[in-house]
């Protein structure tokens, strides 16, 4: 059985670790001191790049690379720590804020030192009252001990951290939505480019980083890049000559919820499989796994055929899904996928910020179609048309056969794909919320099509046995990787 | 919003403690407007909900138009434009909580408080006749490991069952 490897969470349950003195006993702030004593800022940035650390907030973008886009000649520069944590199924940042806030402060200090940043805003979702209180108290202590404020520890650095409360809007987790919200406006995402690294909050270069990402920094500096890169798999990206290393290094705070016996946060090396993770989380509650959502509700669903998929950035991209925020939701054989999709679509319809027409209108439309199907009023009229699938030449196309279609399922796919097209990965919206809507909508429907068809045919929700609810991958184009370059395929 | 309308309301101003908090807050940002959300949180804590008079006051403090404040208030679900109960009960109903039977908790609360569920545009619908409770549904509260969860004002309650809900409400 896979062992937990607690690094970020190692001292989480130590009594009073939220106080400076106890944190200090467990090497607190020594990694920051090491950074300023032994390294130049550029060297820290290089270490972070070499460590292969990828952002833990959702996009999985290389942190070191993001830092390299920040123009160093424009002052001031800002750091925004993203503690908005509102992706359904994600709850790892909350524990850091509530139990070990000094670790986050140390991570912020290292980032500020590396990037020459003097002001940090920690954007905390409005519902985290306890987390904000604990972090505020820790910040106050750090000021008193001279780790924040003017001339930090006699180094000449000036570093300030302020917490900023959100007010219940999911879209403020998107980095430019967060920036707009921080500026005191509606949290409506901006068009990109310019990216925040170049023009962010108050129109100045801004690094936006998730809590978990920042908490990795003390350990990278403290234990070195070599130690860090030993954890988790590094693949070879053969699109480059010579092949470029594609790192999935470090540990991940996997949040697992739903039908498992011991839901919770488990810190494990990146790259274990779904089956292994379910085992770590006390095993399945129920008889059989029906489906797994691997990266928060925005991620395309995995079926029982895909349980050996490794939960890391590269493997999940290849499986046409994503690691996202690392929120894993497990569903057992009693769950109805139509019903689950309805729940998720209600969430998105509620949270669209309303700027872009396809998202503002499309998302409630998708919700209404799923609602109709769940209510048993799905449009039944079936017509016969040429069947598309894997044709004789092995490519996607007309198979020469005919099939019956269900009007509402086609409509669902069409509306969702017009918000953001999951096959071509192009979107008609300002932010990738659009993809976050159409990914679940299309993937649930394609992969669990028999259950959707049954609901329409029978005029009520029908929960099929696991084996009948999904179509084997060979026969289902939902599993086909159309936008991923072939070279990646046999990792 | 015309001035005339605003005048009908009792005027609003921060009390001493909140004024101090606001003064400290405003120094954190290079532009005053950026203090909007924390300022509105303070104002709502003091006034109970965001009245036109509150909006006018906040606008003056931050050197922006009242319309801009209204714009923000209407965007964020945590700001109320109508009175709410002394205890605001937020029931999470997103997927992980739904998989753990949050509906049972919600139905129990509805029956026990004898009220409907508030909607964002009609908070009165979910407020009990005595004005003590407001019941509303919210999206994932980032505590899915201890689902189903509810928040009562600032406090989170975990792993709920109808019995636990009874106990919590009795102890309020
Ligand atoms: C709709 C949407 C919601 C998001 N919500 C969050 C969130 O709650 N927390 C978070 O850290 N990142 C969230 N992100 C990702 C951020 O945009 C951004 O990529 C991230 O904060 C960057 O930090 P990282 O590189 O450290 O992950 C969201 C993105 C989108 C499109
Ligand atoms: S895609 Fe949706 S959430 Fe994103 S900016 Fe457009 S309307 Fe807003
Ligand atoms: S779904 Fe209820 S806390 Fe996440």
Keywords:
heterodimer; A: 491 residues; alpha/beta; Ubiquitin-like (UB roll); 3 domains; four-stranded parallel sheet; 18 helices; 15 strands; elongated; B: Arc Repressor Mutant, subunit A; Glutaredoxin; four-stranded mixed sheet; 8 helices; 10% strand; binds flavin mononucleotide; binds iron/sulfur cluster; binds FE2/S2 (inorganic) cluster
Polypeptide structure, described:
The complex is a heterodimer of chains A (491) and B (172). Chain A has 491 residues and is of the alpha/beta class. Helices cover 38% and strands 17% of the residues of chain A. Chain A contains 18 helices and 15 strands. Chain A has helices at residues 20-25, 30-38, 41-51, 63-68, 92-99, 101-115, 129-144, 175-182, 211-223, 225-229, 274-280, 313-318, 337-351, 357-374, 407-419, 433-447, 449-458, 466-469, and strands at residues 78-83, 119-124, 160-165, 206-210, 234-237, 244-247, 251-258, 264-269, 289-293, 302-303, 327-332, 382-390, 396-406, 420-421, 426-427. In chain A, the strands form five sheets. A five-stranded mixed β-sheet of chain A has the order 8-7-11-9-10, covered by helices on one side. Chain A has a four-stranded parallel β-sheet with strand order 3-2-1-4, sandwiched between helices. In chain A, a hairpin with a 6-residue loop joins β5 (234-237) and β6 (244-247). In chain A, α2 packs parallel to α6 and α6 (101-115) crosses α9 (211-223). Chain A is elongated, with a radius of gyration of 23 Å. The two termini of chain A are 24 Å apart. Mean pLDDT of chain A is 92; it is low at 481-491. Chain B is α+β, with helices and mostly antiparallel strands and 172 residues long. Chain B folds into two domains: 3-75, Arc Repressor Mutant, subunit A; 87-170, Glutaredoxin, CATH 3.40.30.10. Chain B contains eight helices and four strands, in the order αααααβααβββα. Chain B has helices spanning 3-8, 16-26, 36-47, 52-62, 66-75, 95-99, 102-113, 162-170; strands at 87-92, 133-138, 150-152, 155-157. In chain B, strands 2-1-3-4 form a four-stranded mixed β-sheet, covered by helices on one side. Chain B starts with a helix and ends with a helix. The model of chain B has no long low-confidence stretch (mean pLDDT 93). Classes of the chains: A alpha/beta (491), B alpha+beta (172). Chains A and B meet through β3, β7, β11 and α13 of A and α3, α5 and α6 of B. Bound molecules: flavin mononucleotide, iron/sulfur cluster and FE2/S2 (inorganic) cluster (FES). Residues 92, 94, 96-97, 140-144, 147, 149 of chain B line the site of FE2/S2 (inorganic) cluster.
